[in-house]
Amino acid sequence: MSRKSMVNSADKKQDVAMGMDVLDCTVCYEPFKPPILQCSVGHFICSSCRNKLKKCPQCSRTSFERCFGMERVVESVLVPCSYAVYGCTKQITYFNKKSHEQACSHGPCFCPENNCSFHGSMETLWKHFTVQHKWPCTVFKYYKQFNLSVKPGVHILRADNGQLFMMNTVPVEPVGHGVSLVCVQANTPASRFGCNVLFSSFKDHHQISTLDSVRCSSLSEGLPKDYFCIVPKAPSGGDDVLLRITIDTELLNLLDDEQEEDDTEQEEEEEDGESEEDEDEDEEEDDEEEVDD
Description:
Blueprint: H1 3-11, E1 36-39, E2 44-46, H2 47-52, E3 64-66, H3 68-76, E4 78-80, E5 91-93, H4 97-103, E6 109-110, E7 119-120, H5 122-132, E8 137-140, E9 146-149, E10 153-159, E11 164-172, E12 176-184, E13 194-199, E14 207-211, E15 216-217, E16 229-232, E17 242-248, H6 250-292
Parallel strand pairs: 8-10, 12-15
Antiparallel strand pairs: 1-2, 1-3, 4-5, 6-7, 9-17, 10-11, 11-12, 12-16, 13-14, 13-17
GO molecular function: ubiquitin protein ligase activity; zinc ion binding
Catalytic activity: S-ubiquitinyl-[E2 ubiquitin-conjugating enzyme]-L-cysteine + [acceptor protein]-L-lysine = [E2 ubiquitin-conjugating enzyme]-L-cysteine + N(6)-ubiquitinyl-[acceptor protein]-L-lysine
Keywords: Metal-binding, Transferase, Ubl conjugation pathway, Zinc, Zinc-finger
């Protein structure tokens, strides 16, 4: 490519400012996305609204046709995610922005403490938890067991890759304590993480509680309360019970294994099908030879 062509190509992509409302339907105010219709005068309307209306809401024309030029425009308009300040680097077509942000894992997370309005990225939230509220924090590695004493209150768990988990322990009278665990992440109901907790509350007592899929939460609804295990009280009544915790990504590995098994089975079925076709072809060739003879 010549230098002049490179310059001309760069000129075709520039940052521009525009009123984004021109890319919204004037009836439902949702962003235009293909297919886009226009009346005979040139007023635009989205396909959803066109199906509900018999005439143009701006000029009362009744005939519409598809506007491929406007579709090309809206497909070329890329905008940053509103959560770029929290770490999202994606550029999205304008009409997909809303759906992307509803599922974006970089959405803000919130401090669950009453009367605290702080929100931010995972990194800033971790600093807020440990500095502002003085909540204890334990740094751990996936698949490596670590120990925590059973104490009522919040305990922050931080993986070596920066991922945050929040463990909340509450008294459950007269039994003992309930333990809740969530993965601190926005817009993701289920995570790829699993958790095993082993403990012994008294002599000859050994118990294991497993959480196959740790729930994700932005903590906008407050502290987690859906405890997945109950730890019986120690005979002394004190905080003598030790939790042996392992957090892993086993769920993701299982999903990968299942996908590999499905792929293998599909390949075997295709190979069996090809083998049967080859056998059929051989039989046809034998039949033709017999006829010739």
